[in-house]
Write a structure and sequence with these properties.
The complex is a heterotrimer. Chain A is built from 20 helices and 13 strands. Chain A is of the alpha+beta class. Chain A has a domain of about 110 residues: Tick-borne Encephalitis virus Glycoprotein, domain 1, CATH 2.60.98. In chain A, strands 2-13-12-11 form a 4-stranded antiparallel sheet, covered by helices on one side. In chain A, strands 3-4-7-8 form a 4-stranded antiparallel sheet, with no helix packed on it. Chain A is globular. Chain B has a single domain, classed as Glutaredoxin, CATH 3.40.30. Chain C is α+β, with helices and mostly antiparallel strands. Chain C has one domain: Beta Barrel (OB fold (Dihydrolipoamide Acetyltransferase, E2P)), CATH 2.40.50. In chain C, about 30% of the residues lie in helices and about 30% in strands. Classes of the chains: A alpha+beta, B alpha/beta, C alpha+beta. At the A-C interface, helix 14, strand 1, helix 15, strand 2 and strand 13 of A face helix 1, strand 1 and helix 4 of C.
Chain lengths: ~650, ~170, ~140
């Protein structure tokens, strides 16, 4: 049996089982019969098995160079290194949809295991029907429109290989998978929300979906950081974020999921914000579909230049369907969702709502900026684009407001603020003022000083909460401060984890402000062994070398760099910026050489070289401070999220007293 | 909000729908339509030399049958690759009534094409891109149609689907 | 809804509206061709513009020592001289479709960024183009 045949048959089988699962879920709801529910639950692992087999079949076809499969013929070459071959399934549209559907079926299977237990028998049929419905959509798109296993009549002996940009950095092996895990994961809370609205039970779903949302959110966060890293190390322009439509498509669902993660706590604790939670999760899931639509339909031009396939229309239909189902149900039940309690602005719930609204606003602003060129063209016919300065302009006030709330929110107690809180807020405000003042005194720009102040303010918030919690626990149980801290971290995971995430976000805010403000860029054409004094460095060009690799050729411009000032300490050594020439691409791709240090990053790019005699090379140097700290903050956020997701420690009771609550 | 959300969804849907339907470059008329087809002489790819000779001169083949000229390149992915099977199918249907010829930028492109999609109609290569200049080519893939009166009768600057080939060829039959 | 809340909402919405639409108006970058520029010169002065067209044959001067690049951008009807600092991208060639982001400075256009389409299904424009075709090229680039 050939890989192509196996894949095609597996796809058909998974389509069959998805439809079956959908039908049984529908019957289970219609007749309130758990036997149908059991049958639907059995379909879920079969769908997963079918898609996993299809995915492995594609990998198999790639590894065995089976060019009778069109996807392999178009996106693979026998010269590709093994790791490139293994990541080729997500190098183009058909394979990406297959990966997406496979991960979707994995989530469906995991959810189906909870059906009838944690997910009660009334809601389970609807939740499963929603997930099976999404599954049917993705598998149908593959079977009927973009089949990864389409055959080639006369197989070639070799193909062109995947897009060179994907071969240029190993991050490409990680980033898309994380992104899909995050995007797909948001379908689970959406399915739970739909089921809750259909059976009109508005409370319990939030406890259950907080976990799933956090899983998806963690992957999405990691994916966004990984994407920034890839962009920084591959694209050669020395930046990590450009508010390109494709990047915006990934950040919009992130903001909406973040908003949900905040308001959901209020519903868990006080039963408020039901309508907000349904709205945020519907929008977050719709935003993931929107992102795919945007990048695959050619509606908006983007430097990422995805091929626009025939699937734009079906994704548009799917997007509208998700919005109609979500908001149709919500408007039907909205009369029953009236919140009973009063919300004070100077309380935890007030801060959480404020934060969620800011996240929602952020998502909205980015959406408007992304779609604005389309609106202008529809209205006036003029071709415009929205420059990155617009996004920075709106991001700064929103970011500052978010960082302020992020520090104050956890300090504020539920319902009402007391005197200890005022003292805490005073200390935090003091750190903010001192930090900003110190920054200004050191001659830093206003923005960076403010970012420094906000960072210290957030650190102070977390430190105050910890020290008071430790002091209380230490005196009441008569244990040492260290033991008290460890016990607090173990028993109140939720608080501890979110503090770690918040510190990560505050650090990211500082790193972004500093790296965006203090960037030095310089470019020069160097002759062999000519010395270039720049940014506290002494750069010398050594003879260019040609390197033959299996899938490409590279021109390397070795640089000998000596640090001549205290600030550039650690930047010395040799650098090998290179230009990679891929047979399938007419333009060479620059691979910058980056050296991170605690303060500055040194980023050398080979721009051009003497093609006749190799006597000169044009080199670009970009020095950016604190980019390393941005990656560290990403790791902190990921670790904090992981800690939040760990199973509860023994003896931990829900709602245990928080340090300052 | 409760009453207005369907309007918002509808407006978004309409905007995106419009965005996908924006006029494409095929709506643009070619300046050459109705004018005499510029002549070219290009080397024939070696697998075809036995039956077509060393080089192919367009003017020698004009006047008998209409001619379809397809411009192809191996680096143009996926558009050119999507179109090629349809080109092959159109050739199978119309080979008696229409002459098909494929122009590649390099010899290598033509060999890639043959490997992937098989041998059918003659292929020539145009390393200097002179045909592209003479015909005001927009990009690849591009298909030109020349009628029996030696005049350019149609042009399509994007991958054609089977219906597109039929529609184009019907203009001259 | 209490009047106090209503007032707050109005203030927030107004601030947001100003933030978005004020910012959008100032940061819109128009795609234009040389002909379009000469139709309405005042409109495009001292703001960021994307100027698109073909690099006129024989007009490219690049000094690799000073990294100063000069060329003339044309749409077949009108021409505009462009100056830019930095290495031209690898796809930058004569008769090549190009988009320059920058500002008008008197008669000359000062480029800040050179964009050449870098996707794999790039379509090389040839001669014999019409202004509409050029527009399409510009749209395709970036």
């Amino acid at each position: 049996m050939s890989a192509g045949l196996l894949g095609g048959v597996s796809l058909l089988a998974s389509l069959f089982f998805s439809v079956l699962g959908l039908a049984f879920s529908g019957l289970a709801y219609r007749f309130r019969d758990t036997r149908y529910l059991e049958a639907a639950k059995r379909a879920a692992p079969l769908v997963f098995a079918g898609l996993a087999a299809a995915f492995l079949a594609l990998e198999w076809a790639l590894i065995t160079h089976d060019f009778s499969v069109k996807y392999v013929a178009l996106h693979h070459s026998v010269k590709d290194p093994l790791w490139v071959t293994l990541v080729t399934p997500w190098a183009a549209l058909e394979g990406s949809i297959l990966l997406w559907a496979t991960l979707q079926s994995l989530y469906t299977w995991l959810v189906s295991r909870a059906a009838g237990k944690q997910l009660d028998v009334w809601r389970a049929p609807i939740a499963l029907a929603t997930l099976f419905g999404i599954q049917v959509f993705f598998v149908s798109v593959m079977v009927f429109m973009v089949n990864p296993f389409t055959a080639v009549a006369q197989p070639p002996l070799d193909g062109n290989g995947p897009n060179p940009l994907l071969q240029n950095h190993w991050m490409m092996a990680v980033h898309p998978v994380l992104m899909y895990l995050g995007f797909v994961g948001l379908s689970v809370p959406f399915a739970y929300a739909v089921s809750s609205m259909v059976v009109r039970r508005y409370q319990s779903w939030v406890h259950e979906t907080r976990f799933w949302t956090l899983v998806a959110w963690g992957f999405l966060t990691a994916a966004i950081f990984a994407g920034g890293w890839w962009s920084y190390e591959v694209l050669g322009w020395g930046g990590y974020w450009a508010f390109d439509p494709v990047e915006n498509a990934s950040i919009i669902p992130w903001f909406l999921a973040t908003a949900f993660l905040h308001t959901v706590q209020v519903q868990e604790r006080r039963g408020l914000f039901k309508a907000w939670n349904f709205s945020f999760i519907t929008l977050a899931f719709a935003a993931t579909v929107f992102g795919t639509f945007l990048t695959r339909s050619g509606v908006i031009q983007s430097v990422h230049a995805f091929a626009s396939g025939p699937i734009g229309v079906v994704f548009l239909g799917f997007l509208l369907l998700v919005l109609i189902v979500g908001f149709g149900l919500l408007s039907k039940v909205s009369a029953e969702l009236k919140d009973a309690g009063e919300i004070r602005f100077n309380s935890r719930e007030g801060a959480l709502l404020g934060g969620a609204l800011l996240f929602g606003t952020f998502a909205f602003v980015i959406l408007v900026g992304t779609l604005w060129p389309l609106v202008v063209e529809a209205a006036s016919g003029a071709k415009v684009s929205v420059g990155a300065p617009f996004f920075f302009q709106v991001s700064i006030p929103l970011g500052v407001a978010l960082l302020l709330l992020m520090g104050a929110g956890p300090v504020l107690p539920w319902r009402n603020a007391g005197t200890q809180v005022r003292r805490n807020l005073f200390y935090m405000g003091l750190s903010l003022g001192l930090g900003t003042g110190a920054g200004l005194a050191l001659g830093l720009s206003l923005g960076v000083s403010l970012a420094l102040g906000l960072f210290l303010y957030n650190l102070a918030a977390v430190a105050l909460m910890f020290s008071q919690g430790i002091a209380e626990r230490g005196t009441s149980l008569k244990i040492s401060a260290l033991q008290a801290f460890l016990e607090l971290a173990a028993t109140n995971k939720r608080r501890f984890g979110s503090h770690v995430v918040h510190v990560g976000v505050a650090l990211a805010g500082l790193a972004i402000a500093v790296s965006q403000t203090y960037r030095i860029e310089s470019e020069k054409t160097l002759r062999l062994s000519e010395v270039w004094n720049v940014a506290g460095l002494e750069v010398r060009l050594l003879p260019l070398t040609l390197q033959e690799e299996s899938n490409r050729q590279a021109i390397i411009a070795p640089l000998k760099v000596r640090s001549t000032s205290r600030l550039s300490w650690g930047a010395g050594g040799s650098y090998q910026p290179r230009l990679n020439f891929y047979p399938s691409s007419r333009t060479p791709l620059a691979a910058p050489h980056v050296r991170y240090s605690l303060f500055n990053d040194y980023y050398f790019v080979l721009q051009e070289f003497d093609r006749d005699k190799g006597a000169w090379a044009t080199i670009r140097l970009i020095v950016t401070p604190m980019v390393l700290w941005l990656w560290i903050s990403g790791a902190l956020i990921a670790l904090g999220t992981l800690y939040l997701l760990l199973p509860n420690a023994a003896g931990f009771k829900k709602g245990a007293t928080a340090p300052s609550a | 909000m409760r009453r207005f959300w369907p309007l918002i969804v509808l407006a978004l849907g309409g905007l995106f729908w419009w965005g996908m339907q924006r006029p494409d470059m095929n709506a643009l008329p070619s300046v050459l339509i109705g004018r005499p087809a510029p002549d070219f002489t290009l080397p024939v790819m070696f697998p075809y030399r036995a039956s077509w000779g060393q080089s192919f001169q367009l003017s020698k083949h004009l006047g008998k049958k209409p001619v379809i000229v397809n411009i192809w390149a191996s680096w143009c992915k996926p558009a050119c690759y999507d179109e090629a099977p349809h080109l092959q199918a159109a050739w199978q249907e119309y080979q008696d009534r229409v002459l098909f010829i494929v122009i590649d930028a390099q010899e290598q492109d033509g060999l890639t094409f043959i490997r992937l999609f098989g041998l059918a109609f003659p292929q020539v290569f145009d390393p200097l891109g002179t045909v592209g200049v003479d015909y005001g080519m927009y990009g690849v893939p591009e298909t030109l149609l020349i009628n029996r009166e030696d005049r350019v009768a149609g042009r399509h600057a994007d991958p054609l689907d089977p219906a597109g080939f039929d529609k184009l060829i019907q203009k001259v039959l | 809804m209490k009047p106090k809340h209503l007032f707050g909402i109005v203030v927030v919405v107004a601030a947001l509206g100003y933030l978005i639409f004020g910012g959008l108006g100032r940061n819109l970058v128009y795609f234009i061709t040389p002909s379009e520029y000469f139709q309405d010169q005042a409109r495009y002065q001292s703001r960021l513009v994307r100027l698109g067209g073909l690099v006129k044959a024989g007009s490219v001067q690049y000094n690799k020592e000073t990294l100063a690049l000069r060329f003339v951008i044309t749409d077949g009807v009108r021409e505009i001289p462009v100056s830019h600092s930095g290495t031209p991208p690898a796809l930058f060639k004569e008769n090549q479709g190009v988009v320059v982001e920058g500002r008008f400075n008197g008669e000359e256009f000062k480029g800040q960024e050179l964009l050449v389409k870098h996707s794999e299904d790039y379509k090389a424009p040839g001669a014999g183009y019409s202004p509409e075709q050029l527009k399409k090229i510009i749209q395709e680039t970036k």
